[in-house]
Specification:
Blueprint lengths: L4 E9 L10 E9 L10 E10 L5 E11 L5 E6 L6 E4 L11 E8 L7 E7 L4 H7 L190 E4 L26 E4 L39 E4 L5 E4 L3 E7 L11 E3 L6 E2 L2 E8 L3 E2 L2 E3 L4 E11 L10 E9 L5 E10 L5 E11 L4 E9 L6 E4 L10 E9 L1
Length: 569
């Protein structure tokens, strides 16, 4: 067999798929014999094998082809192209960017299946192949369209950033992802790093836009752990700014059992700020079966948990069909504070529930203030005020103490008529006043009214200090004209807790010759626990007891005692 000598030149021809690897290699060789004579117009079989790592390395691809030299002894082969007699492996799967590659050449001169190894040489870079070596730096602008069901571009970096996009123009974008049905940009972090990071010196670090007809969320973040789904920190400006120019929502957050949106301000800034030209600056909704709080805001210092400001409309509006529209809770300061320069500081309406509900343990549940000439509170409709200590009830009066605390207090009033009969069988009630003894307390018979449970057995005992009004009328029975002249007196007496007496009002009448009625009325201050009653006395030379009656043939129901509280003190 003649010895064949090959002079080979390896040229790389690239066809790109995502700027990765060549799809074929042009291989040209010159066949000479041992005498250095060109082997022209000869047909033979060549086998070419690509190895990786070393000349004796692992074969990655091998193909066998029938070749014919030309008149100059040259033959050409396009490795990886169509027309190979046989192949082993996949030429497209060769990773040209990792490791060195070698080409082994074998010839079957007689086409009988016996190949002679002509040697293995390392594949050196040609001007085209060197372009493949720099594939990590894409030639821009770069665009690629595909229909892959997996990621079109997947970049993994075990140490630094996977993708860094820097757009430095006035309207340029560092990284832009667009998709019709799936995810435009997907960032995944398996450790403690940042999945997607955006930084800007003057412009927007991140911008997400949906078209006018898109009803989906602009940004959707799902976090399956216990930490924050989205955390944005700002040293001076706004941490998050979302604008919706249509009827959509600027920011929408949904959670099953935790916090949808958590915003924290460590200094004097605003944790959450919403601005709207025509729609709602902020809208918070809970589902029908949710009994939790729709919005919860907590201030641990002296700041305001929720502040709503409006130049014309409502600063803060809470609407509830069956429960509480707005609820504010505070351990020391105001739970809800509303202020307005010209309009209503607080307006609340409810269809069936509570428009405004405010509770406190030791402070003030609700406080309304206004300068002179303005209205602190205006109510259109009925007002209901309840108190567990002194509950509301029919006829009760809202009364304030010296500190301005008002409570429901029941009416204090009584009236009693008639006298206790001390001479049965005469057809009328007779109460005797012994002229020879000291004045006696008049014993009234019939209790017609007793609100406040202060009256019993002719004596009224004040349950509360205040100003009271008392009336009494006494009908003296007619005496015989043959009896000497006599004098009678009635008095309204106040007795303190120590038994000290004070005459509040008194009246005297002499020459009592017929039935006569005497009346007294007085307004006076009564301390709690004081007793008030009516005394009567008679002075006559004959020492005969005088009678107090209720009726005579001409005067009816003329003996009675009544009183009521004017104001509580």
């Amino acid at each position: 067999m003649k010895k064949i000598i090959l002079s080979a030149a390896l040229l790389a021809q690239f066809g790109f798929a995502m700027a990765q690897v060549p799809q074929s290699l042009n291989y040209q060789a010159l066949a000479r014999n041992a005498a250095n004579q060109v082997q022209a117009n000869k047909t033979m079989t060549v086998r070419l094998t690509v190895k990786v790592g070393a000349a004796m390395g692992t074969p990655r691809y091998s193909e066998t082809r029938s070749i014919t030299t030309n008149a100059n002894g040259l033959f050409n082969v396009t490795i990886g192209s169509m027309g190979a007699l046989s192949t082993t492996g996949s030429f497209a799967s060769i990773d040209w960017l990792n490791g060195s590659h070698y080409l082994m050449t074998e010839l079957d001169v007689n086409n009988n299946g016996t190949f002679v190894d002509l040697g293995t040489v390392q594949m050196q870079s040609t001007p085209y192949a060197m372009a493949a070596g720099t594939a990590s730096s894409l030639k821009l602008p770069f665009a690629k369209t595909g229909s892959s069901t997996t990621e079109m571009l997947s970049i993994v970096n075990n140490v630094g950033s996977a993708i860094s996009g820097d757009g430095r123009g006035l309207s340029s974008v560092g990284v832009k992802g667009a998709t019709d049905l799936n995810i435009g940009v997907l960032g995944v972090s398996y450790g403690t790093g940042t999945a997607v990071y955006g930084q800007s010196s003057n412009g927007l670090s991140g911008r997400f836009v949906t078209q006018a007809t898109n009803t989906k969320s602009v940004v959707e973040i799902e976090h399956k752990g216990a930490a924050n789904g989205l955390k944005v920190t700002s040293a001076g400006g706004q941490a998050i700014q979302a604008n919706s120019t249509g009827q959509g929502v600027g920011i929408m957050a949904t959670t099953d059992n935790n916090i949808g949106v958590l915003a924290t301000s460590n200094n004097t800034g605003t944790a959450v700020y919403g601005s709207s030209y025509r729609g709602l600056a902020a809208n918070f909704v809970t589902q029908a079966g949710n009994s939790s709080v729709t919005v919860k805001s907590q201030s641990l210092g002296n700041g305001i948990a929720v502040q709503g400001l409006s130049d014309g409309g409502f600063g803060l509006q809470g609407v509830s069909k069956t429960n509480v529209g707005v609820r504010g809770s505070s351990t020391s300061g105001p739970g809800v504070m509303a202020a307005s320069e010209t309009g209503n500081g607080l307006t609340a309406s409810s269809t069936s529930g509570v428009g405004v509900s405010s509770t406190t343990t030791t402070g003030t549940a609700a406080k309304f203030s206004a300068p002179v000439g303005a209205k602190a509170l205006e109510v259109a409709g009925s007002v209901k005020i309840t108190n567990t200590t002194n509950p509301h009830g029919l006829g009760k009066v809202l009364t304030s103490d010296g500190n301005g605390f008002a409570t429901w207090q029941g009416a204090v009033a009584f009236k009693t008529t008639g006298v206790v009969d001390e001479l049965p069988g005469t057809g009328q009630d007779d109460f005797f006043v012994n002229s020879a003894t000291q004045p006696v307390k008049v014993k009234f018979k019939n209790v017609n009214m007793n609100f406040g449970s202060g009256y019993a057995n002719g004596i009224f005992v004040a349950q509360n200090a205040g100003i009271y009004h008392f009336n009494t009328s006494i009908l003296w029975a007619e005496q015989s004209i043959t009896l000497p002249a006599e004098t009678v007196r009635i008095s309204i007496i106040r007795e303190d807790a120590n038994g000290g007496k004070e005459i509040l009002a008194t009246a005297t009448r002499t020459n009592l010759s017929e039935s006569q009625s005497m009346q007294l009325t007085v307004d006076t201050y009564i301390f709690e626990g004081n007793k008030v009653y009516v005394e009567a006395a008679a002075f006559s030379p004959d020492q005969i007891p005088k009678r107090i009656i209720d009726n005579d043939p001409f005067l009816k129901n003329c003996t009675w005692f009544s009183g009521h509280m004017i104001t509580r003190m």
